[in-house]
Design brief:
Blueprint (H helix, E strand, L loop, with lengths): L2 H34 L1 E10 L2 E2 L2 H4 L2 E5 L4 E6 L2 E11 L5 E8 L5 E10 L3 E6 L19 E7 L4
Antiparallel strand pairs: 1-2, 1-3, 1-9, 3-4, 4-5, 5-6, 6-7, 7-8, 8-9
Length: about 150
């Protein structure tokens, strides 16, 4: 086998590996999107180290769609909406949350998430702050830590 043919074979194998890695990431995103899809009730909320009362947190729910769009509701009234981009292959898993404010400006919140069949944990920082690396919300961090439970249809 000539050197140029061997070189092309090696390049082809390397590029094929990158395509397979992209395919694996796309499959992981699809899997997590399917698992996230649905309505999630907030059961615990912590901002800047301060914990919200459980009955206040439970007034909030998020409806997630498979395309990454979401709607935040408070007692069945829409109070926010936006989109997410996730990377379930990152350690910890990452989420970028886009949301328009009242003036129409899009804000980007960087976060991390954990996901199981019935629960979800999310920790994110306000726009312009660094992505959290752990699921904590210490005082003066401006981080928001949220624990969700999947709502089941009755």
């Amino acid at each position: 086998m000539g050197r140029s043919l061997l070189g092309l074979l090696i390049v082809g194998l390397l590029l094929g590996g990158m395509v397979n890695a992209d395919d694996a990431k796309d499959a992981a995103i699809k899997k997590d999107r399917q698992q996230i899809e649905g309505t999630w009730r907030i059961v615990a909320l912590e901002v800047n180290g301060g914990k919200a009362m459980e009955q206040d947190a439970r007034k909030l729910s998020v409806i997630n769609r498979g395309d990454g769009t979401w709607t935040l509701r408070s007692e069945d009234k829409e109070v926010g909406k936006g989109t997410t981009t996730i990377d379930p292959t990152a350690k910890p898993k990452t989420i970028d949350i886009s949301m328009k404010d009242e003036q129409g400006k899009t804000n980007l919140f960087l976060g991390i998430y954990e996901l199981s069949e019935k629960t979800r944990k999310l920790c994110f920082a306000p726009a312009g702050k660094e992505r959290p690396t752990d699921f904590t919300s210490p005082a003066d961090s401006e981080r928001i830590l949220v624990l969700f439970e999947r709502e089941t249809t009755k």
